Each structure stands twice: as C-alpha cells, then as structure tokens.
Amino acid sequence: MAIAKAERLMNLALCLLGTRRPLSKRELRGSIEAYLEAGNDESFNRMFERDKDDLRELGLVIETVENLEGDTGYLARRDSNRLPPVSLDAEEAAALGLAAKVWQQARLAGAASGALQKLRAGGMPEAGDPYEGQHSAIEPRIPVHEAAFEPLMLACRDRRPVVFEYRKSNAARPEPRQVEPWALECWRGHWYLAGYDRDRGAERVFRLSRITGKVRSRAGKYTAEVPDVVTVRETVASWAGEGAERSALIRLRAGAGYPLRAKATAVREGSDGWDELEIPYGHGLDAWLVEFGPDVVVVEPADLRADVVDRLRAVARG
Q1: What is the reported pTM?
Q2: Closest residue by Cα to residue 251 from 219, 223, 222, 279
Q3: 184: Cβ–Cβ under 8 A, 6 or more apart, which residues?
Q4: What is the distance between the alpha carbons of residues 134 and 152, in angstroms, rounded to a whole number?
Q5: pLDDT tens, residue by residue, 76-90
Q6: Vertex 14: Cα angle to 12 and 20 (nearest 5)
Q7: Cβ distance 278 to 225 under 8 Å?
Q8: Which of the listed residues 158, 219, 287, 308 has the most CB atoms within 10 Å of its CB?
Q9: If we measure between CA atoms, which residue out of 58, 54, 63 comes closest to residue 83?
C-alpha cells in the first residue's frame, strides 16, 4: 500500500509540474490511474485532498487558481519549486546531521529526518557521523516527554496566543493562564516556555511539566512586542536561577544533588554526612531546591529559606 501511495503522489506531482495551465480535479482524475479506480466522487475527493496536503508537506508549492467560469484548478510552477543550490561544507553538513540526532527521542524525529533528506536532494554533501563507531555513554539527545511541547512549539512558530492550566510549585490547584508564547528553552533537562502573560501584563516563564490538560490556541494577534532570541534566553536563564548576582548557602546530603554541585561556586565537605555549598541565588532557586526534598537544607539567606519552607508546606498539604 505504501508503494501504491508513493506512486500516486509521484504521478500527481508530475501532472502538476508538467502542465502550463491549471488542471481541474476532473482532469487530474482522468490522468491518474489510481484516481480512476476510486469508487465514487467522495472517495476520490478525500484521496486527492490528502495527496495534495502530503505533497505540500513534502515541500511542493501547489497553487490553487480559479478561472473566469469559477472552476478551480491546480498547478505547481517549476520556478516556484526549484531549489537554489545548497552551499554547505562538510562541517556544516555534519552540524546539521548532529542537530537532527538530538531530536530522535522527540516527536520531531520524522520532521528532522525529512529535512535532511530534502537538503541532501538539493546538494548538501554527505557528512560522516562524528559519533559513528563510538560506543559512548554520552549521546546528543533532548528528551521531550511533555504533551504541551508540540502545541507550544507550533504556537511559538505561528505567533498564536494560547490558554492552558498551570500549577505553580507552591499551589495545590492549577490556574488558567493566557499567554503569548515567545520561545521554548531547555535548562537542566527541563523545558521552559517564555512568553507574555496577558492576565499579569508581564513576561513570565512556565515549566512545561507543570502545564496540565490541553494547550488551546486562541485567535487574534499578539498584544506585546516579542523580544529577540537573546533576550528570551536571558529571561529563561534568570528564571531558572542562572546569572544570579547573589549567593545562597545550603547544606546538601553527601552523595546527593549532583546538579546543585555542578552549579556550586564553593563546596566544603563535612564530616557529619552533609556538605556546605555556595550556589548562585536567582529567581526560581527556591522551586529548584524543593525538588531535592530532605537532601537540602537552606542556611541563608533567610528569605530563600522561608520560600523553600512555604513551598514544602504547600506540597505537604497536597
């Protein structure tokens, strides 16, 4: 069946590329054997619409034209479907191949592979895999387990406002949020959405694992200006506790909290099974420390200690 569909798509593409005038559905049905074998007009229309969408997804530019009589025709102009030469050197091609491997655990794996195939068809040189032949425990991967990732990625791309239920780490129940999404960023193995919160009238960062239910799109344009990529990344970094100007002193159980140890500016090993760490104190540090539960005790500052205690009490209340 896959071979039959591929042949049907190829025949449709050749018909659309080989014509100098728009072809109607009736003409296309009479030119392609698979369409002639369709049981009735309804079956043919469903098949044709699916095939047309599949060809567009593969990158074929199909124009829809109405003539003076109001009939609809279709064609794919050669000048609109001619790829410019792909001028990538071997190192650039290797970088793209490596980037595609990063997404193999995400739902973008198919799109990444398809993009590579199109680039190679356009002349991109074949590049050796820098990881080929190496059985290393470290491989480039970006895990994406949150159901909210794909709809938010598409909303960021299409600049569409969204609505979703969000549960803060110190809240017992989720709350509705109306957001104009800017970008998705991955920090410390967690995905974050940076965007403009309409209800609060300010930029906010949301951790995808705390989004509950479905992400729903909303009609309309953005009401706030979208910052450049660098600003968005700085916002996410600040929210995740990066780039902090203050320091916090914590006690960490020996053998635990390796992500905290990696961020520490100073570590003093203790003889009682606990180590003292100095770590950057930025926005969101209290939420991060709560994740380590009984393995972390905040010594100072007092406001951070109070925030962590409040969050733990909220978690205990359910």
Answers
A1: 0.48
A2: 279
A3: 149, 152, 153, 156, 191, 192, 193, 194, 208
A4: 35
A5: 988 877 766 667 677
A6: 105
A7: no
A8: 308
A9: 58
